[in-house]
Specification:
TATA-Binding Protein; Nucleotidyltransferase, domain 5; 10 helices; 14 strands; globular
Length: about 375
């Protein structure tokens, strides 16, 4: 944008926000979200980008990300009416059936959906000049931990941050690299050569799994989650790592690999903090499902591989050793007491969240990838529970 040549010293007063200005996304979002209620849409505090319209048994769901929109529902006529109304008010283009959204490729195979980011990975490998690299079996070495001051400083920290940032976006459809990306993300400020070597190993793994993605299939509606913690696993500050994965039916819909905010004094404490984080995630997902009028036939099930942490969720006696984690204890225990949450034991061999807390050997890593419905576009079967 440039000033008119006739009046170079004049100031332009904008009546509408121009695309590309800093305030343009906010102005567009305010304009769009203000219009949607006139069409009968409602939003929720659980997710401000999700809008739902209910008319009897018909439902239309609209998901908004800046100026990209996904529109779906169970009534074709109602969806078409919304599209026509939006076209009248805004300059939009209907791209038809969803097949590509924000770098995520969506393929429909019979009654299944396959989500992948193959093109995104190819572009990233080309950008980093790793297109011809040698693939490897796992994104990180088994049970390997990165040290903060390990060797020589990496001389291009900007490059490091750019690649790791791109990898973080890739975890939307690739939970298999979530832990590895979580590790290298902790050294953005002052990366070492060894940290960049770990980043290149992730890229080498992606090179060998270009076509990997997650398969979503229709089935029974029920929530279950797996919670795990690797106690004092971070050698730099001795904080534990929380891993969680939530399933809707047989489909993984939420996962996380994150360092805990405080140091845990025992493995039981670390596991219980992980259970608390998983319970909070389940609460949020239940709010979304309630907003969509999807009723659960039974309470969510939380699987944990630590018997002491499970016992703590049932035990009504507050022990001296758990006083400092009282908030987390009551948060989970309250839901268990009200039968809003079922906590069950799972063996470490069937702990799906294990892949989100540590590097694993290649055979076990592949097993958990299959459990998370990760692979090429084909039928998948659960291994284990």
């Amino acid at each position: 944008m440039a000033q008119p040549p006739v009046h170079p010293h004049f100031v332009c007063k904008l009546h509408k926000s121009l695309y590309g200005l800093k305030q343009a996304p906010r102005a567009w979002n305010e304009r769009f979200t203000t219009f949607l209620p006139s069409l009968g849409f409602h939003t929720t505090y659980s997710d401000s980008s999700l809008f739902v319209k209910h008319v009897g048994s018909e439902i239309v769901i609209l998901l908004l990300y800046v100026d990209d929109i996904i529109l779906t529902g169970n009534a074709i006529a109602a969806i078409q009416h919304v599209i026509q109304s939006l076209t009248t008010e805004f300059d939009i283009k209907d791209l038809g059936t969803l097949h590509y959204f924000l770098g995520i490729q969506i393929s429909r195979i019979s009654t299944r959906l396959f989500l992948s980011q193959t093109k995104y990975i190819q572009d990233l490998l080309h950008k980093t000049e790793m297109s011809d690299c040698k693939p490897c079996d796992t994104p990180c070495l088994p049970y390997n931990r990165l040290l903060k001051n390990d060797g020589v400083l990496f001389l291009e920290p900007g490059t490091y941050r750019s690649i790791v940032g791109a990898l973080q976006y890739l975890t939307f459809t690739r939970p298999d690299i979530a832990f590895s990306v979580h590790q290298v993300s902790q050294f953005m400020q002052q990366p070492m050569v060894s940290h960049y070597t770990a980043v290149k190993r992730i890229l080498r793994y992606l090179k060998g799994t270009l076509s990997y993605g997650i398969t979503y299939a229709a089935g029974e509606v029920g929530l279950k989650a797996f919670s795990d913690a690797d106690w004092a696993s971070n050698p730099n500050d001795r904080r534990s790592t929380t891993g969680l994965v939530v399933f809707l039916g047989s489909n993984p819909i939420s996962w996380s690999s994150k360092k805990q905010q405080t140091v845990s004094r025992s493995s039981t404490e670390a596991e219980y903090r992980a259970m608390s984080s998983t319970t909070a995630e389940l609460d949020w997902i239940q709010q979304i499902l309630t907003f969509l009028k999807i009723q659960m036939s039974c309470a969510p099930v939380l699987f944990c591989d630590n018997l002491s942490a499970i016992a703590l969720s049932f035990n009504l006696v507050q022990h001296q050793k758990t006083k400092h984690i009282e908030v987390d204890v009551h948060f989970v225990r309250e839901r268990v007491a009200k039968k809003q949450l079922l906590v069950q034991f799972v063996s470490f061999r069937e702990q799906f969240a294990d892949i989100l807390t540590k590097g694993l050997s290649a055979p076990l890593f592949r097993t958990h990838c299959s459990n998370l419905m990760l692979g090429i576009s084909s039928n998948h079967e659960f291994e284990g529970r």
